[in-house]
Amino acid sequence: MPKTKVVIAHGWTDPKTGKAYKPAQTAEVEPAQARDLLKRGEARALPAPAEKPAEAANPAPATKNEPTKKEAQRG
Question: Is the pLDDT of residue 48 over 80?
């Protein structure tokens, strides 16, 4: 079963593994355990990772010595 990542709000010890978590530490727990921690206010949902911005459609600008595409087509 996939694990759910949460950010611990206060100190918490995982009863299954005995691992102690400090505040602001990330924990991977079962979904049911995550729901319980969120409901009791002992954890916050981990924000989704930020997506990388899409690559620019235009190529990087040419240097002073290189002609741009338009200049190369003209002459």
Answer: no
